[in-house]
């Protein structure tokens, strides 16, 4: 059964990666959904009694939606659609954070990741995309090996993670577990106050280092662009032609405008 | 029962990580490759938060804050580099730069594009 689901994932991924027409993508998506259902029913066990709307059901809905949006983001042939599917993946991740009790991280993911990083992506896509859909978006390379590697890793991880409750507890693991202990510590109602206390007392050096990293990144990004622009100005606006040594093919014909 | 809930979260993280890896290995648009890297970082964040819940410990969530910080930094610098590469070569294709491959490995040759768009898609321009 594991081998069957791995093969289904491989076939689904191979059919969905570009270049593929509409029919092949639908078949690939259906194969992936079937493989996901097989993996879930074989290896994942429900926790607790089965109800219609329970925490477990909500988790499965959000989890499957997140993985589906991730699949669409990776295999979409239009880069703007990929960015938008990734935005939905981020919303699914924020939902998962909220389910497990990390409210600040859910909000931080939506605000920082989906609101700043994704918007930066879209700006760069607007600045750097030629008219129409470029041929390099409709092709992917090493499709067979990527799909095979992805399918095998999904199978291996699903099997090895299914055995997690049979592992012996660690000797250094001394934090108390259970419902009431979690209410006191990680699921405490004063979530942000607890997290702030932990962040600025135990991890203060890391916070300062992260701030310095952000500053260095800012200066570095500005320096890269400024150096490039200064070199443009020194040369007089025309860069020397880059020795690209392009392989013959459709993408390079579209790029250089001549047929090889 | 705690372990079952933890395992469900870890499986979702693992699938998202694998999808990001497949996207990074097989796509040619540099920005989509970077998007897949961000997807891998999100999967790691799911794992960290799930373990933080399981071990009743704040360390996982605090490390996720740093993961988000590093991702923002990396986005800024890598998108700046992608813009410079685009200005040099005129394309976002990563196979344009395949001169930087190992010596002894053959060049990658394009295959035929099997279909053509009916009408070209108009992207917004800046």
Commentary on this structure:
The complex is a heterodimer of chains A (260) and B (126). Chain A is an all-alpha fold and 260 residues long. Chain A is built from 10 helices and no strands. In chain A, helix 1 packs antiparallel against helix 6 and helix 3 runs antiparallel to helix 4 (79-100). Chain A is flat, with a radius of gyration of 24 Å. Chain B has 3 helices and no strands. The longest helix of chain B is centred in the middle third of the chain and has 31 residues, at 59-89. Chain B starts with a helix and ends in a 37-residue tail after the last helix.
Number of strands of chain A: 0
DSSP strand content of chain A:
under 5%
General form of chain B: elongated
End-to-end C-alpha gap of chain B: 53 Å
- Oligomeric organization of the protein chains: heterodimer
Helix content range of the residues of chain B, please? 55-70%
Distance between the amino and carboxyl termini of chain A = 48 Å
The biggest sheet of chain A, with number of strands, parallel, antiparallel or mixed sense and barrel status, is: none
Which two protein chains have the largest interface (Cβ within 8 Å of the partner's Cβ), and how many residues from each? A-B, 119 and 97 residues
Question: Overall pLDDT of chain B, averaged?
Answer: 84
Low-pLDDT regions of chain B: none
Helix content of chain A: over 70%
Number of helices of chain A: 10
| Helix-strand makeup class of chain A | mainly alpha
> What is the overall shape of chain A?
flat
């Amino acid at each position: 059964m594991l081998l069957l689901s791995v093969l289904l994932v491989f076939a689904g991924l191979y059919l969905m990666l570009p270049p593929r027409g509409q029919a092949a993508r639908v078949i690939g998506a259906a194969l992936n959904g079937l493989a996901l259902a097989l993996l879930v029913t074989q290896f994942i066990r429900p926790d607790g009694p089965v109800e219609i709307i329970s925490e477990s059901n909500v988790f499965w809905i959000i989890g499957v939606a997140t993985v589906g949006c991730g699949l669409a983001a990776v295999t979409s042939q239009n880069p703007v659609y990929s960015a938008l599917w990734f935005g939905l993946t981020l919303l699914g991740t924020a939902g998962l954070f909220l389910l497990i009790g990390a409210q600040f991280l859910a909000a931080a993911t939506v605000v920082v990741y989906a609101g700043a990083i994704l918007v930066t992506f879209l700006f760069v896509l607007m600045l750097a995309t030629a008219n129409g859909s470029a041929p390099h978006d409709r092709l992917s390379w090493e499709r067979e090996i990527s799909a095979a590697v992805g399918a095998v890793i999904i199978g291996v991880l699903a099997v090895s993670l299914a055995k997690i409750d049979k592992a012996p507890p660690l000797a250094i693991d001394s934090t108390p577990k259970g419902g009431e202990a979690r209410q006191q510590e990680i699921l405490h109602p004063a979530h942000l106050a607890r997290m702030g206390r932990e962040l600025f007392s135990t991890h203060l050096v890391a916070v300062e280092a992260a701030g310095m990293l952000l500053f260095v990144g800012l200066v570095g990004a500005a320096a890269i662009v400024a150096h490039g622009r200064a070199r443009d100005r020194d040369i007089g606006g025309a860069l020397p032609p880059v020795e690209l040594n392009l392989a013959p093919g459709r993408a390079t014909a579209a790029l250089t405008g001549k047929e090889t | 029962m705690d372990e079952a809930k933890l395992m469900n979260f870890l499986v979702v993280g693992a699938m998202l990580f694998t999808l990001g890896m497949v996207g990074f290995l097989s796509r040619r648009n540099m920005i989509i490759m970077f998007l897949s890297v961000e997807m891998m970082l999100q999967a790691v964040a799911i794992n960290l938060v799930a373990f933080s819940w399981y071990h009743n410990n704040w360390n996982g969530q605090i490390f996720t804050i740093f993961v988000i910080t590093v991702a923002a930094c990396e986005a800024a610098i890598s998108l700046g580099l992608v813009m410079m590469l685009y200005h040099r070569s005129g394309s976002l294709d990563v196979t344009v730069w395949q001169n930087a491959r190992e010596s002894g490995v053959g060049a990658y040759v394009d295959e035929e594009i099997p279909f053509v768009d009916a009408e070209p898609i108009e992207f917004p321009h800046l």
